[in-house]
């Protein structure tokens, strides 16, 4: 399992130590949640925090944009150090164009779906994607309860990916812990994002290791 700890649940007063912990852990990526207070009812952090993170971290940055019209900022996120750029299907009017511009900046292109958005909307673009990120909570906050319907969605998305013959990865975000990650893997997930279950644990590195071994 690819493991992408979400920085949103880190202790920002000890950000240096948290990044060092992630560097020393088995985490594959670092998940960076960017919120604009418009697409989601919360505001997180932006370019200065990301640039600092990029300087201090050895891991690729898996950036999740919860912002309207992400097209406006594709280049800026590349400059700030994004390796994977996730844009919401619900926030892009011309999704195909947005995906092409992410690839033109040499980042991995990923599309995120809200819990209510069916995977079938991706039928005609799946072959262009490096990853699909399925939300298993409504985006905006860490620490929410996992929506059980997600398993069924992962299976349907896995079928779509296999049918298309693409090597698109499937990542899940929201309420993930070491227990439901096993079921997500069985349903077809390749990667999980986890915030509170990692940073809220007494031994975050051990939780990362447990998820990695799934
Ligand atoms: C929610 C964010 C998630 C969040 C996950 O809007 O996209 O990445 O940080 O946090 P947990 O794992 O606590 O649900
Ligand atoms: Zn996220």
Number of helices: 8
* Distance, first to last CA: 6 Å
* SSE arrangement, N to C: EHEHEHEHEEHEHEHH
Structural class: alpha/beta
CATH homologous superfamily grouping? Aldolase class I
The percentage of residues in β strands lies in 15-25%
Query: What's the gyration radius in Å?
Result: 16 Å
How confident is the prediction overall: mean pLDDT? 98
Assigned CATH architecture: Alpha-Beta Barrel
Quantity of strands, as a count: 8
- Domains counted in the coordinates: how many? 1
Shape: globular
Poorly predicted regions are none
Fraction of residues in H or I helices: 25-40%
- Main β sheet profile: 8 strands, parallel
Strand order of the largest sheet: 1-8-7-6-5-4-3-2
CATH C-level: Alpha Beta
What ions, cofactors and ligands are bound?
A: D-xylitol-5-phosphate, zinc ion
Q: Could you say what the CATH topology is called?
A: TIM Barrel
């Amino acid at each position: 399992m690819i493991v992408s700890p979400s920085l949103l649940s880190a202790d920002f007063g000890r950000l240096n130590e948290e990044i060092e912990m992630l560097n020393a852990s088995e985490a594959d990526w670092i998940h960076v949640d960017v919120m604009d207070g418009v697409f989601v009812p919360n505001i997180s952090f932006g370019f200065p925090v990301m640039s600092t993170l990029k300087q201090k971290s050895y891991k690729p940055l898996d950036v999740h944009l919860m912002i309207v019209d992400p097209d406006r900022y594709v280049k800026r996120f590349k400059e700030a150090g994004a390796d994977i750029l996730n844009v919401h299907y619900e926030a892009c009017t011309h999704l195909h164009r947005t995906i092409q511009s992410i690839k033109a900046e040499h980042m991995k292109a990923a599309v995120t779906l809200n819990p209510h958005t069916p995977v079938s909307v991706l039928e005609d673009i799946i072959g262009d994607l490096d990853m699909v990120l399925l939300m298993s909570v409504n985006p905006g906050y860490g620490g929410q309860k996992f929506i059980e319907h997600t398993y069924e969605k992962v299976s349907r998305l896995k079928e779509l990916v296999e049918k298309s013959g693409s090597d698109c990865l499937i990542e899940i975000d929201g309420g993930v812990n070491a227990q439901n990650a096993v079921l997500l893997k069985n349903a077809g997930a390749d990667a999980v994002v986890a915030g509170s279950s990692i940073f809220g644990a007494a031994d975050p590195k051990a939780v990362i290791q447990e998820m990695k071994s799934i």
